[in-house]
Structure of MAPEG family protein:
Amino acid sequence: MPFVLWSLLLAAVLPLIWAGVAKAGVRYDNHRPREWAAQLAGYRQRANWAQQNAWEALPTYLAAVTAAWLMKVPVAEMNAAAAVFALARVAHGLLYVADKAALRSLAWLIGLLAVLYLFLRAGGVIAL
């Protein structure tokens, strides 16, 4: 299976990883999870925010890969864009947790550019 398809699983699992970072090692209230999360501070709070951002990025990435796949963008190009997206999103979460705001924003932008590339390539706006 091409990496681009595996990257969909990775993109879907990333929010769960950041949620795990937020919850690890502290007492978690499963009766009031959102209330509990609102009380987080420091790196745990930032991990929760990384989780939220990862969920927000997921649908657009899924749509971009689907469009590229349906429009028969060459698999090698999709794999390259998927690798850029995956690395950018992992970096985004790590930089969020580490409180490196400017670098985090750069990682976010790189991930967005990978998504835009897939859409533009699928739409024939970029032709190689």
